[in-house]
């Protein structure tokens, strides 16, 4: 039996080997901690890029709408519509100002009631 014990006997690693293991583990932990901040910054930067892309897309759509409006701005119909919106009339035309439309529609309801039809 003494032989069997000798074969299975465990030897304790030396102090220098244990110290090297602990130093290695600490170095790995330090490296992992050092990667936390750059990974967070990368994640935040990706979110910022996604936000900026959405903003660029929104601005491109707004730009297209403005370009379409600019193309229509030179037409006589557009000029007349904008002039009438500002309250301008052509020479010889009469200007009629109708007030109280909001109150009238509130009284008659959304469909205008029976008296809302023109005859």
Notes on the structure:
The chain has four helices and no strands. The longest helix is centred in the middle third of the chain and has 59 residues. The model has no long low-confidence stretch (mean pLDDT 85). With 119 residues, it is an all-alpha fold.
Question: Which characteristics define this entry?
Answer:
mainly alpha; 119 residues; rod-shaped
Fold blueprint:
Layout: H1 2-8, H2 15-73, H3 76-85, H4 101-108
Short description, anyone?
The protein contains four helices and no strands. It has helices at residues 2-8, 15-73, 76-85, 101-108.
| Strand element count | 0
Task: Please summarize the sheet with the most strands.
Answer: none
What fraction strand?
A: under 5%
Tell me the radius of gyration: 41 Å
Fraction of residues in helices?
A: over 70%
Mean pLDDT score: 85
Low-confidence stretches: none
Global outline: rod-shaped
């Amino acid at each position: 039996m003494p032989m069997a014990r000798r074969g299975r006997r465990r030897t304790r690693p030396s102090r220098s080997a244990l110290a090297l293991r602990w130093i290695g583990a600490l170095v790995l932990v330090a490296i992992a901690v050092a990667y936390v901040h750059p990974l967070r910054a990368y994640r935040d930067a990706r979110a910022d890029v996604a936000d900026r892309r959405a903003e660029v897309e929104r601005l491109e759509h707004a730009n297209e709408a403005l370009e379409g409006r600019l193309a229509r701005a030179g037409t006589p119909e557009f000029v007349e519509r904008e002039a009438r919106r500002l309250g301008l009339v052509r020479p010889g035309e009469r200007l009629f100002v109708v007030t109280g439309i909001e109150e009238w529609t509130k009284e008659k309801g959304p469909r205008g009631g029976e008296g809302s039809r023109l005859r």
